[in-house]
Amino acid sequence: MDSAGDIAIRVRGLTVRFGRATILENLDLDVRQGETLGFVGPSGSGKSVLLRTIVGLVPHQVGTIEVLGTELDSASTKERERIEQRWGILFQNGALFSSLTVAQNIEVPLKEHTKLSRGLIDELSALKIGLVGLAPEAADKYPSQLSGGMKKRAGLARALALDPEILFLDEPTAGLDPIGAAAFDQLILSLHWNLHLTVFMVTHDLDSLMTICDRIAVLGKKRVIAIGTVDELLRHDDPWIREYFHGPRGRAASAAE
Which pLDDT value is given to residue 10? Predict the structure, then answer.
């Protein structure tokens, strides 16, 4: 049993409904400090809904969400703002502001949440651009001028702008070719270790799971049905888990390790 101090995200009894449709029901989840947790499940099972519920973009009807020791529903507005500044989010398409350059996108949270000088904001923006492996000249480009992989890296740079402790990733390698996806996996792995991040990653990508995740949680039947290491899930007897990890793609990913 993990102690409270070891847990970055604690979810208890979470229920999310859209109208009459129940997406998540009585869901429990612990994300440990400093781990990379991959989150998988059948399409439409609510993986991205869970991520968006944790960060407050989707309301929940029942249950509690605690992040870094703060219960979010009972937190004051200022307490909530302080917690939100301790996480960063990379959405599937990067979610960049199309009218802003890469540098300006990264500067948005710095201007909103800090009182840093213009010069220091410029320096931090350039630092984050280099941190995610983009060339300095990417700073002045608009999202429409970027490749899919560059958009994701720019979105990641913005997610890291405030030096968060938790990084949420929603399908980070979706749409990337195998070479680009592998490079992005290595980038996340490097950032995780060098910045001491806790990473919550929703993905379908078996290679990503095998490469960078400490544990994997499986969503099914509206709740977490299993959580553990790859080796532990390989021995699980749930039919969907067995098909996912022992099917042709699962065998190929395992062979590549």
Answer: 98
